[in-house]
Amino acid sequence: MESFGPAQLVLTASIARRYYVDGRSKVEIADEFRLSRFKVARLLDQARSSGLVRIEISHPGAIDLELSVQLQEALGLRRAIVVDTPEVDEPALRTQLGKAAADLLSEIVTAEDVLGLAWARAVTAMTEQLTTLAPVPVVQLTGALTRPDVEANSVELVRHTARLSGGPAYLFYAPLVVPDAATARALRQQPEVAEAISHFDSVSKAVVGLGSWAAGQSTLYDAMDEKACEQLEKRGVVADISGVFVDADGEPVQSRVTDRVIAINAEQMDKIDEVIAIPYGLAKVAAVRAAVRSGLVNGIVTHAPLAKALLNETN
Amino acid sequence: MESFGPAQLVLTASIARRYYVDGRSKVEIADEFRLSRFKVARLLDQARSSGLVRIEISHPGAIDLELSVQLQEALGLRRAIVVDTPEVDEPALRTQLGKAAADLLSEIVTAEDVLGLAWARAVTAMTEQLTTLAPVPVVQLTGALTRPDVEANSVELVRHTARLSGGPAYLFYAPLVVPDAATARALRQQPEVAEAISHFDSVSKAVVGLGSWAAGQSTLYDAMDEKACEQLEKRGVVADISGVFVDADGEPVQSRVTDRVIAINAEQMDKIDEVIAIPYGLAKVAAVRAAVRSGLVNGIVTHAPLAKALLNETN
DNA sequence: AGCCTCCCCGCTCATATGAGCACCATCGGA
DNA sequence: TCCGATGGTGCTCATATGAGCGGGGAGGCT
């Protein structure tokens, strides 16, 4: 069965060519070669199972489709886009991912959607690459974190996107995290904040940030007091999804710290149909896995090395 | 039409994977992805036409299937085997081609066949590589040419093959070319020669030599007197197929020289169902083309460079 | 030889598939 | 505003295809 003569081999190749390349039907091929269509079918089966015909899925672009599909299926994601880019410096990488995410967003957002945007550098990178967007309401999902290295803040991000889209913007000026729960409560009652929050339930698609709960791996971590960080770490927090903390099992972690965050909460995020994150860097493997396990994040735009790491470690 | 969003792209890739790699049906895929089967079909069409799925035919062996099929179709051959071997020295090449031809012969010769063998170095190389053969009569098609560089002659070649096969051998001792027609006539009436010739009509498969009509490109040319060579050349002879001379259009050339050759003639060869030649070397391009055009030769075992040359020059 | 087993072949019939068509939404121009 | 063009969708129906079956030939064993 495993060894064929050369005539058989060439015949099979010939038929495979006719079938796959020329796209003729098996009946036609059978007539041409004076074989029964069953024989043709068997030869084609044989050709495939013996590896004589190899089918590759690829395309001339930045997206590694093979990896994308694998990642999507392995993690059970609604969407996965893997950008095939050599490991360049972080800003360039963010731009690349931002472009891919922007393309994705333009494509999947329709006029019926309500778009939610959280604060994250990757999300900023995305909005910078965004050129067209259906006219939809854009809702700010988190308070702003002002960092010296980022000029745009959460507010600008939302405003810019809404302007591009032509839809209304629901935005507010407030920090992402405040020193105590009472302040947070007060802020949440501010009219603009309250209005934005009131729209959380109608958000149908969102782009969020995704941080690994460690120094330098989450802007929120870096912005928070050490005590709070440690407390959350002790509770098993592995990832923060734009202010929603989850542990390695994907369970949202409640804590006093949670109350100090001005952002969408786990329950609200869970109701959003599509939540897309744009993680990069191998340090985020565990965070991504946790976020996906939580079910909160169901779409990912990332780069090849992280995608491969996610696939490899998937036990 | 030519630009898709990444989501579309990944969806298409996903479907292509399911269809081509996993082998699921379009209906199943449609159910899985909540699409109509028509949509799935259209996406798959799109994927193929846009080059997203690429189908390659290859295999881990010495035979270049792609080239073989192309050659077969371009020249309208019954069989074409192209051995993919780096341009090595001639004897090694002959061995390689001999092996391929031997495999081919073992495969296609059945007990109902009658095998004809002409004299040629390549045919000798083939018989040396032959290990199994259905029990068939083996008929010597040409007289022998004794050359200092070849130990086996036409007779040995036939005897060896017949022994391997287990069938009867029809062989004779006579030179391939004699000084005059009268001698040839006399030789043809010798009992063994006459008997072999009487079997020419029943030969169903034959392996022949193929020479380009020029010095060093045909053992027959080299063995003949200069005058005869020139005369044939003047008549437009481009190739000799084991003693049958053909011009560039593939027309057999009759001449007084023809009568001096002890070998199968054009008419008899034309009746043979499969006639296989084993040409090699780029100098033989024109000869191969003539031989194929004549319709006398309908199977070829060769190497990649010659195959490519034949394909390129095919206007 | 006689028997058995395996394998190869081509059949039937249910199902999958493709070609062509009609419908509908969208969009640009009169 | 209306109209025609356009493209995308899913239908029908004829055709292609796959699963499973039985016949028969080749080869091995007793």
UniProtKB/TrEMBL annotation, chains A, B:
* Alphabetically ordered keywords of this record: DNA-binding, Transcription, Transcription regulation
MF terms from GO for this chain are: carbohydrate binding; DNA binding
SUPFAM superfamilies, sorted: NagB/RpiA/CoA transferase-like
Q: Where is the secretion signal located? A: none
Domain Sugar-binding residues, every copy: 64-312
Family annotation (Pfam families)? Sugar-bind
Q: Per its UniProt record, what InterPro entries does this chain match?
A: NagB/RpiA_transferase-like (IPR037171), SorC_transcr_regulators (IPR051054), Sugar-bd_dom_put (IPR007324), WH-like_DNA-bd_sf (IPR036388)
What the record says about family reads: Belongs to the SorC transcriptional regulatory family.
Identify this protein by name. Transcriptional regulator
